[in-house]
Amino acid sequence: MAATDATDAPDATRTADAPLLAVRGLGVTFRTPRGPVRAVDSLDFTVESGRTLGIVGESGSGKSVTSLAVMGLHRGADVEGSVRLAGQELTGLSEKELSRLRGRKMAMIFQDPLSSLHPYYTVGEQIAEHVRVHFRSGRAAARKRAVEMLGEVGIPEPARRAGEYPHQFSGGMRQRAMIAMALACEPDLLIADEPTTALDVTVQAQILELLARLQQDRGLGIVMITHDLGVVARVAHEVLVMYGGRAAEQADVDTLFADPAHPYTRGLLDSMPRLADDGDDGPLRAIPGSPPSLLAPAPGCSFAPRCAVARDRCTQERPPLLPYGDLPGRAAACHYAGSPIAEEAAR
Amino acid sequence: MTTPTHAAPPAGSPAEAGPAALLSVRDLAMAFPGRRSATGRRGAPVRAVDGVSFDLAAGETLGLVGESGCGKSTTGRMLVRLLEPTSGSVVFDGRDVTRLSQRALRPLRRDVQMVFQDPHSSLNPRQTVSRIISDPLLVQGWSAADARRRAAELMELVGLIPEHIDRYPHEFSGGQAQRIGIARSLATGPRLIVADEPVSALDVSVQAQIVNLMERLREELGLSYVFIAHDLSVVKRVSDRVAVMYLGRIVEIGAKRDLYDAPQHPYTRALLSAVPLPDPAAERRRERIVLLGDPPSPAAPPPGCSFHPRCPKAQEVCRTERPLLRIAASREVACHFPGD
């Protein structure tokens, strides 16, 4: 297969037991005419090979900025902290070094496939070009690889479809083509930013199934960024809940849904209408207010203005993300997580 | 057809509405002209909506669900006459309003209002909230002072602060902007509101507020809703009855509980099984019906049952003969082989 790569020198910095992706103290600040905007603040997370980390958040939570910063695509923003891919530090790398890693080691897919597919070239040409750049393979081999990939992501008649342009593809097929392009160079890490949000639910089911299969076949590490807790429940192994640019809570997926520690997570889960409910039992438990503006961050906990648990301390003192409970990897950023006050408010 | 007049019948209060349907839709169809090819020849018309019929009782909510391109939004727009149907009829409160002139429509405009998906783009950014909410009243002949007073009342009713009446839409969050859109729709005292994806552009944590608001308003004001959405959990929550659309037609319609507990059309079953549940344990246990392919284009609908190319149960007859809606398991289903 064209995917064996002779050009890649062994990584001196790679340590055998380093996680696939380790993000430590990530901060992203945008300079705007209205002052600096802290979009992401002191974020830590880890993704292992073959695992999916779901990053959940609403508008302004910083979830998409996080993914762009990991990929080194955060144009014009100040980034601090450390991003290590299989032990190799990515912050501080030149654009040239980064673009060699993008595609080859890590790839990204977006909500709108047209943002990464060029309208002037056929889908096959674009995937082949990608393969040629990263593997320095010949035209014929690259072309063959493109057709192979289109077949692998479930596009019928891949040889014929490779000769078509993106506009000739339906929404679901475009998303498959973008996945084919992202995975053509066999990256170890895939970052998927709301990849199914624009799709119909029956097509979403197909794409999520496809990603799960590709993960199993290739041991791919996936970061799934979404606002949809249903999608997280279906695909994630670990979950990071973001609010106002920070981690609100981290846990494995079962624990998060069974026993949410942060009042925001709990509020989200309580407020959702459920397919399993009758829907006739009183009003939903809505969270009051709206997500915070990053332009005017509150001094304390950014969820405090909407939080039923909040006390004076919450509006003055920012709660740090601290280990919570006995399970490893579980953490919550709430002064009252697990306290009787929080239990009371949840009732 | 009724003769267009502009003497409006008095708007009856919902309590007076008899057993007859408030809204009665028959064989509603919308065909958009086909796209011109490079040679200038027009393609076949696109039948976005192709024979939709249903009744809605006063105080009832009908959920209209389906995927993109199924014709649910086009149907909604025809109900409020934002789009002129190609054929079929819309009877509101015993009166055929399908072909009334714009002028004769004015009373209908008072009784039937619409709420849109994107709250910010459906509000004029250059108008204050006062102007936005009172505009429909000024059209109905209210004085400026009365309309403004009413606008402030409506703001309070939908959970906004009346003191913000002179602010502009950009000063409000998405959820608040949707409240403004709802207040505007209520200004004329309508009996029916057609809501087209009213919560899908909102943040998850805000959606429940708007769902609760719409449910409270329905109760307090005796409203009826046609609630158009792709989110099956939200639709289950708000609806009494649900209609599932596929490629311009209703494939299943019935009481919410019947439809969700025991869907009879294979498309309804697949749709319900595709919804991701916010419950990891349930997700792992679940058996999903994953459909092949995408919904077909309404410009080139498949022959026979339009769902047959994706249907796990399709037989020969499904490829040749279009199934009509008929009663099965106490709801209506358009399938040759309804049930399990």
Can you describe this structure?
The complex is a heterodimer of chains A (347) and B (340). By secondary structure, chain A is of the alpha/beta class. Chain A has twelve helices and twelve strands. Chain A has helices spanning 63-71, 95-104, 123-135, 139-152, 158-161, 171-183, 201-218, 229-235, 253-258, 263-271, 312-316, 340-346; strands at residues 21-32, 35-47, 52-56, 77-85, 88-89, 106-109, 189-193, 221-226, 238-243, 246-252, 322-323, 331-332. Chain A has an eight-stranded mixed beta sheet with strand order 6-7-8-3-9-10-12-11, with helices on both faces. In chain A, helix 3 (123-135) crosses helix 4 and helix 3 packs parallel to helix 6 (171-183). The longest helix of chain A has 18 residues, at 201-218. The radius of gyration of chain A is 21 Å and the shape is globular. Mean pLDDT of chain A is 90; it is low at 1-12. Chain B has 340 residues and is α/β, with parallel strands linked by helices. Chain B has a domain at 14-33 and 45-111 and 192-201 and 222-333: P-loop containing nucleotide triphosphate hydrolases (Rossmann fold, 3-Layer(aba) Sandwich). Chain B is built from eleven helices and twelve strands. Chain B has helices at residues 72-79, 106-111, 129-139, 144-157, 174-186, 204-221, 232-238, 256-261, 266-274, 280-285, 316-320; strands at 23-32, 46-56, 61-65, 87-92, 95-96, 112-115, 192-196, 224-229, 241-246, 249-255, 326-328, 331-333. In chain B, strands 6-7-8-3-9-10-12-11 form an eight-stranded mixed beta sheet, sandwiched between helices. In chain B, strands 2-1-4-5 form a four-stranded antiparallel beta sheet, with helices on one face. In chain B, helix 4 packs across helix 5. Chains A and B meet through helix 6, helix 7, helix 8, helix 9 and helix 10 of A and helix 5, helix 6, helix 7, helix 8 and helix 9 of B. Chain B: InterPro entries: AAA+_ATPase, ABC_transp_ATP-bind, ABC_transporter-like_ATP-bd, ABC_transporter-like_CS, Oligopep_ABC_C, P-loop_NTPase. Chain B: One of its GO terms (molecular function) is ATP binding.
